[in-house]
Amino acid sequence: GAVVSQHPSRVICKSGTSVKIECRSLDFQATTMFWYRQFPKKSLMLMATSNEGSKATYEQGVEKDKFLINHASLTLSTLTVTSAHPEDSSFYICSASEGWSNQPQHFGDGTRLSIL
Amino acid sequence: GESVGLHLPTLSVQEGDNSIINCAYSNSASDYFIWYKQESGKGPQFIIDIRSNMDKRQGQRVTVLLNKTVKHLSLQIAATQPGDSAVYFCAEREGNQAGTALIFGKGTTLSVSS
């Protein structure tokens, strides 16, 4: 089955640090990947849609200069949280779908980001 | 115990009972729906999906019902087990392209006691 791998699973760093999170589709090619953010006991909120070879599409209210997305290949998308601050602490999750027709999105196991 | 009708943030059942988790979706143009299970500290795990041209679909121990008239989706879990304890989310999508994002509903925390 389709597997999405996310790395790292947990990051703890000081305020002002930039953090890169990787999302890989291990056994399929993903033209599009998605990045979500989840606060404790809340639902997943879509941050951006990552398109291979082009600019990401950000949801309203998401700062594109704060959350840099790069989708350089059909199996890898990265999310960089630039100059992270405590309010950026959250659970970040990526997902991808295989193929073009109705297929469920498969999710990585998330990255727990804690900014001190 | 079972819960039918309104969305509840939590649902507690006894092992062996049937569980029903409800979801109201917002976009009448949505035509693809998925139920996910999320365990603590992990990403959502696919359970079952349904397209808008269907009103019922069955999997192993799970059934999804879709009522487009009232924009309501439900997940039925038969013979609920302690391993089913998790947060369950419904998600909707407009269009049949894999490049379209899912929009998630509010989750329901299912607690199964043995």
What would your notes on this structure say?
The complex is a heterodimer of chains A (116) and B (114). By secondary structure, chain A is mainly beta. Chain A is 0% helix and 51% strand. Chain A contains no helices and eleven strands. Chain B contains no helices and ten strands. Chain B has strands spanning 10-14, 19-24, 32-38, 45-51, 56-58, 62-67, 72-77, 86-93, 103-104, 108-113. In chain B, the strands form two sheets. In chain B, strands 1, 3, 4, 8, 9 and 10 form a six-stranded mixed sheet that branches. Chain B has a four-stranded antiparallel sheet with strand order 2-7-6-5, with no helix packed on it. In chain B, strand 5 (56-58) and strand 6 form a beta hairpin. Chain B is globular. Chain B starts with 9 loop residues before the first strand and ends with a strand. At the A-B interface, strand 4, strand 5 and strand 10 of A face strand 3, strand 4 and strand 9 of B.
Radius of gyration of chain A: 13 Å
Sketch the topology of chain A as an H/E string, one letter per element: EEEEEEEEEEE
Mean pLDDT of chain B, to the nearest integer, reads: 90
Overall structural class of chain A, as computed from helix and strand content, comes to: mainly beta
Chain-wise SSE layout:
The complex is a heterodimer of chains A (116) and B (114).
Chain A: E1 4-7, E2 10-13, E3 19-25, E4 32-38, E5 44-51, E6 57-58, E7 67-73, E8 76-81, E9 90-96, E10 106-107, E11 111-115
Parallel strand pairs in A: 2-11
Antiparallel strand pairs in A: 1-3, 3-8, 4-5, 4-9, 5-6, 7-8, 9-10, 9-11
Chain B: E1 10-14, E2 19-24, E3 32-38, E4 45-51, E5 56-58, E6 62-67, E7 72-77, E8 86-93, E9 103-104, E10 108-113
Parallel strand pairs in B: 1-10
Antiparallel strand pairs in B: 2-7, 3-4, 3-8, 5-6, 6-7, 8-9, 8-10
Quick structural gist:
The complex is a heterodimer of chains A (116) and B (114). Helices cover 0% and strands 51% of the residues of chain A.
